[in-house]
Design goal:
238 residues; alpha+beta; Cathepsin D, subunit A, domain 1; eight-stranded mixed β-sheet; three-stranded antiparallel β-sheet; 6 helices; 32% helix; globular
Amino acid sequence: MRPALFLAALAAALLSEAGAPQAQPQEAAQFIAQWQKSNAACRAPATPALEAIAACEQRDTYSKLLSASNFCYGPVEGAPPGWTPCGGDPAAGQPSAKALKDAALARATERFQRMGGVFVLPATVNSTSTAYFIVDSGAANVQIPEELAEEMRRNGTLTEADSLGQRRFTLADGSGLQQRIVRLRSIKIGERTMENVMASVSPARSRALLGQSFLRRLSSWKIDNVRNSIEFEFTGSF
């Protein structure tokens, strides 16, 4: 099993348990060290596309593990942001003030727009191009239409270094579809940016989809159909 898949499975197991067990000091220190290593590789411009995606996903998995172990991410006495124990007594339902503050900062809500009979979420891709995504938890990856990929190629924000080859997908009706896979260097929704996201390129005039290669890296997300908005929660440096 690849490390990223193993970590995702481990995080899911821990986070699904009521009252996840607290990490021991040595274990927490190892998680923090691995988080720092993954974060550095995730954000290093020289990291190859596939390795950068894997590093970012590993970092976000360690973020979930640390959060489940009652560690909080944020500035520490004027130092750069880092992971520290939240304090309080989670077993007694008493999170610390810092944990509550960090939880509030880690949530963002963005409104949908109505377009062509569906609700879509505006996002900035690779810092230059605007796209309107349908949130689709059934899609394995983020999907962008060919014309958006071509626009980014023209402005130089999608290059050969971001190409990850071809992949065959099986559709709901059992038929197959071959699509190009690329690395999106960033997807920004509101004030929050996620780096190094895997995406497939679909035919021209198709819908852009916000699939699992984005959604699984969040701590949680939910759609409010009354307010026509999405709330997403993250940990760490997203």
